[in-house]
Amino acid sequence: MGTVSNLKKDPQINPASLRGAPSKSVFIRALMRFQGQDEAMAITIREISSTGMKASTMSAPFPGGKIEIGLRNLGAVPATVIWAGGGMMEVAFDRIINPDEIKMKITGTYTPAPDNSANLRRI
């Protein structure tokens, strides 16, 4: 099995054949909507991989339901609900994604705070 970037280049690879791909523990807010509907609901992604995710939601759809997950930097990703219960759900993406692309990019420079320890009072 290749890296995620290599998998994206091969349209013959079926995401279902890659179940069990390494997942990352995250805490990311996203939007979920049933395919064909306009109304979206907020979910919290807890784990994500190139082929699916686990998320907490107030009202989970039924297993087998077709949904779209709005992911930062990737847009709407079609998915199928695999399991749902207890405010949690697991979904399988209909296409392979790169989970690193949804991370928020932090840019800029870092300047350490000045050392003011000489000015501190002893108590």
Description:
- 4% of the residues lie in helices and 39% in strands.
- β5 and β6 form a beta hairpin.
- The longest helix has 5 residues, at 4-8.
- The protein has 123 residues and is mainly beta.
- It has a 6-stranded antiparallel beta barrel.
- It has 1 helix and 6 strands.
- The protein has one domain: Thrombin, subunit H (Beta Barrel), CATH 2.40.10.220.
- The model is unreliable at 1-10 (pLDDT under 50).
- The chain is elongated.
- The chain has one helix spanning 4-8, and strands at 24-34, 41-48, 52-57, 66-71, 75-85, 88-93.
Topology:
Blueprint: H1 4-8, E1 24-34, E2 41-48, E3 52-57, E4 66-71, E5 75-85, E6 88-93
Antiparallel strand pairs: 1-2, 1-4, 2-3, 3-6, 4-5, 5-6
Question: Can you give me a brief rundown of this structure?
Answer:
The protein is mainly beta and 123 residues long.
Order of helices and strands: HEEEEEE
Compute the CA-based radius of gyration.
19 Å
- Shape annotation: elongated
How many individual β-strands? 6
Count of alpha and pi helical runs: 1
At the first level of CATH, the class is Mainly Beta
Order of strands, widest sheet: 1-2-3-6-5-4
**Secondary-structure-derived class:** mainly beta
- CATH level 4 superfamily: predicted glycosyltransferase like domains
Which architecture does the CATH hierarchy give at level 2? Beta Barrel
Helix percentage? under 10%
The largest β sheet comes out as:
6 strands, antiparallel, barrel
